[in-house]
Design goal:
Layout: H1 2-33, E1 45-50, H2 54-61, E2 67-75, H3 84-88, E3 95-102, H4 109-117, E4 127-128, E5 131-132, E6 139-142, H5 145-161, E7 172-174, E8 179-180, H6 188-191, H7 193-203, H8 205-213, H9 233-238, H10 241-244, H11 259-265, H12 268-276, E9 294-298, E10 304-307, E11 311-312, E12 320-321, E13 330-335, E14 342-347, E15 353-358, E16 368-371, E17 376-380, H13 381-384, H14 393-396
Parallel strand pairs: 6-7
Antiparallel strand pairs: 1-3, 1-6, 2-3, 2-8, 4-5, 9-10, 9-17, 11-12, 12-16, 13-14, 14-15, 15-16
């Protein structure tokens, strides 16, 4: 009888322990499900990325202007409410990821993608740096069709740039469910700065990124502010409807606006340069020191003019190129102003005054196309496909 009673108590004890464990797990799931990591602001947009250890990716995104909050978590697998122990063991199919809440009026999705390239290695799909396995695989998890299109365009441009010397393999997938990680993982770089710095240094992450990007390691996010890539929304309005709609430049449909329309669309300086043949001040213009890869187009029409591949530091204080992006991209005119004879450069379709060409440039042409920033709009390489200039990517991307 004692044995039977003892056995009964043992069963009850096991049931109690199991019930307690289940209650604790349920409480943990409920707490994580109802967590307030996400900002309560309907005006914020959401994006999800994976780039290896989520401590690093979260820290990277929270430094970007316009990002309000970044939340560490798990996605890409089928296990509901996975724990760190489960994910890190590679048993759930999930990867460590970060969900980014950002103000779309202060930073664009393209800006977040550009930031991602400065946080991880998109050519390695078997892990990231010292962390190996599918639980550390990179990924872009899109929330809608627009994000998918922008991500694919950015990936294509990054591949074309040849900056890594290896294929860009980062997958682009539709987001399933994002599960926030445990509280001790959130803002880890703030809560445990010493351990975080020790880990990041020994992981090799930032040594790799600095080696790849060199002096461009620190990214300027100001060009990724919507409607203010140059701090003036008027410049965006100055480009033709084809460009704004993502169709690039179509010479068959372009019609140059009249003077009154151009005065409304352009800034005073843009109008004076393109329509009245003025010259902007040296060293006090937007693109004289721009080092980013991309395409320079006419600010009035959007027609392609110059590639960053042909841009060089002339020391003059104006953006200078060794040649136009195509032999028929610009027109030459004799300029006899200021008691001298020079060769003026104008755009073909908009007939905008761009600048002048001189015979004191470097190889291979020996020419210096000295242009006015105010006459051009710059389209970053990673945005060219989405803007309708995909056919020009090979002219901009670094030769391999």
């Amino acid at each position: 009888m004692k044995l039977k009673v003892a056995g009964l108590f043992s069963v009850l004890a096991l049931v109690s322990v199991a019930g307690l464990f289940t209650a604790q797990v349920s409480a943990e799931k409920s707490e994580r499900e109802l967590s307030q990591y996400a900002p309560d602001d309907p005006n914020l947009a959401v994006a999800t990325f994976a780039g290896g250890c989520f401590w690093c990716v979260e820290a990277g995104y929270e430094k970007i202007p316009g990002v309000v909050e970044a939340v560490s978590g798990y996605t890409g697998g089928d296990e509901a409410y996975p724990t760190y122990q489960q994910v890190s063991g590679g048993r759930t199919g999930h990867t460590e990821a970060v969900q980014v809440y950002y103000d779309p009026e202060k930073i664009s999705y393209e800006g977040l993608l550009a930031g991602l390239w400065r946080m991880m290695n998109p050519t390695d799909i078997n892990g990231q740096f010292v962390d190996r396995g599918k639980q550390y695989r990179p990924g872009i998890f899109y929330h809608n069709a627009e994000q998918k299109q922008l991500a694919e365009a950015a990936k294509q441009a990054l591949e074309a740039s040849g900056v890594y010397g290896n294929p860009v393999l980062i997958p682009i997938e539709k987001l399933k469910t994002f599960y926030p990680a445990e509280d001790y993982h959130q803002d880890y770089y703030k809560k445990n700065p010493v351990r975080y710095k020790f880990y990041t240094f020994n992981s090799g992450r930032y040594q790799f990124i600095e080696k790849v990007y060199g002096e461009d390691y620190e990214l300027d996010f100001s060009p990724y502010v919507p409607d203010a890539a140059d701090g003036d929304a008027a410049r965006e309005k100055a480009v033709s409807d084809q460009v704004q709609s993502g169709q690039g430049f179509n010479p068959a449909t372009f019609e140059k606006p009249g003077k009154e329309v151009l005065k409304q669309r352009l800034t005073d300086l843009q109008y004076e340069v393109t329509q009245e043949d003025a010259t902007e001040r040296a060293f006090n213009n937007e693109y004289w020191d721009n080092k980013r890869p991309g395409l320079y187009v006419d600010v009035v029409s959007g027609e392609p003019l110059f590639s960053s591949r042909d841009k060089y530091k002339s020391g003059t204080g104006w953006p200078s190129f060794t040649r136009p992006i195509a032999s028929n991209a610009v027109a030459e005119h004799e300029d006899r102003s200021f008691f001298m004879t020079r060769t003026e450069i104008r755009s073909i379709h908009a007939d905008s005054h761009l600048g002048h060409v001189f015979n004191d440039g470097p190889a291979p042409t020996g020419l210096r196309y000295c242009m006015n920033s105010a006459a051009m709009k710059f389209i970053p390489l990673e945005e060219m496909a989405a803007a309708g200039y995909g056919e020009w990517i090979d002219k901009v991307a670094l030769a391999r």
